[in-house]
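step=encode ok
step=design start
structure_in=
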């Protein structure tokens, strides 16, 4: 009996590990695909008549790549907030403005996946969102813990903001009772000096 139980537990553990490995491979492949699409759009020579940034996108459409260097957080951002999006990427809430428009753009992701590093976020941290319509930097000005019904956090703002939303607490098992909010205000895009030995280059 004990041997059968041990074998069952081993088989169950192996199945879970296999599922996690497959899920990671699918998510990684999806990220590479989206990053390739974004890069091709960023480098494409688009006629001036086609440069107008869209006000809305279809669910699953690539938006950009978000990174917070100090936290080691990075992920692709796509349109939508349903499970098909959030299981693989950071989702843009469709009811909020896209980042290249003025207002409060809201992004959501799972606390046990892409947004797990947010537990170490600090006031003053810089977020960078790279999109085909420009690179945008934001500085964290506050963090909040709210209830799921506190949707005022995505209310319109007169300035360009980025609001990050994840479930809270980060180590909670099951459906978490609260939401962790990061509110960041857009700042002038920062440049870094890259020294090559002969020439210095300004890069975003």
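sequence_out=
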């Amino acid at each position: 009996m004990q041997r059968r139980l041990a074998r069952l537990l081993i088989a169950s553990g192996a199945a879970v590990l296999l599922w996690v490995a497959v899920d990671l491979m699918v998510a990684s492949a999806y990220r590479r695909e989206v990053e390739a699409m974004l890069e091709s759009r960023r480098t494409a020579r688009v006629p001036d008549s086609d440069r107008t940034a869209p006000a809305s996108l279809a669910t699953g459409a690539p938006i950009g790549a978000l990174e917070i260097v100090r936290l080691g957080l990075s992920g692709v951002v796509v349109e939508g907030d349903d499970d098909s999006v959030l299981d693989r990427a950071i989702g843009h809430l469709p009811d909020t403005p896209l980042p290249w428009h003025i207002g409060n753009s809201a992004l959501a992701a799972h606390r046990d996946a892409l947004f797990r590093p947010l537990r170490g976020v600090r006031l003053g941290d810089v977020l960078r969102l790279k999109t085909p319509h420009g690179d945008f930097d934001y500085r964290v000005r506050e963090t909040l813990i709210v209830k799921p019904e506190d949707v005022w956090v995505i209310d319109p703002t007169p300035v360009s903001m980025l609001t990050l939303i994840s479930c809270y607490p980060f180590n909670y098992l099951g459906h978490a009772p609260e939401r962790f909010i990061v509110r960041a205000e857009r700042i002038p895009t920062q440049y870094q000096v890259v020294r090559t030995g002969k020439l210095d280059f300004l890069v975003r």
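step=design ok
step=annotate ok -> The first strand starts at residue 62 and ends at 68.
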